[in-house]
Amino acid sequence: MQYTHIIVATIVGFLFPLYALITGKKARLYIIQNPEILDKVFQSTGIILLSMCGLVIASMLINSTPMSTIGLSFVFNVWYVLALIAVCFTAYIIITKINISDERLEKLKAGYKDVLYLMPENKNQYNASVVVSVIAGVCEEIIFRGFLYWQLQKYMPVYAAFFLTNVIFGLGHAGTKLKNAIMTFVLGILFSATYVLTDSLWLAIVLHIIVDFQSMIIGYKLKQKMASA
Length: 229
Prior knowledge:
Layout: H1 3-33, H2 38-62, H3 78-96, H4 102-111, H5 123-152, H6 158-171, H7 177-198, H8 202-228
Helix pairs in contact: 1-2, 1-5, 1-6, 2-5, 3-8, 5-6, 5-8, 6-7, 7-8
């Protein structure tokens, strides 16, 4: 039943980025005009990612494919899982302690210009953004760096699969404009490199969660500071 792998790879590697490209601009404008829906956007994003990750895991189980094939063998070691939780929790605490000085304000506003609309501005949105940061860090690494990369290697050289995986990952974020999509591609390359070097998604998941924590927490603090200025 290897065809299930092909179906899932088509969904996550073609249909999902295509959908993001087609609807990205419209979704961005709608959120900008209706910022109060942002917590629901986070919730729907989490559901979509969990659903795609569920398809990946289901396909692996249906075909009796070892989880180590996509770098997930660490999930069977309780110490690795506890270490992942501990590192991410510690990073979260450290990032929440960061204060935005007046000197950094303008630089941060420029850096967040294209994605500020996605940053939480109240406690409900903030809590939702923290949860979806964890979901994205886990699910996107399983989906892209693990499963999709493995599937693409069957049809092309490793370096081409490495590159294409992260192009697709970047396209999935195209709704946040070109600069952020390129940054997402670059971060994807970093995450992929850790996977290739360690043969495990552990470090990639940790780094991904921390990057998303930093983006959302600093973005939240930035919006608060701008509102009080």
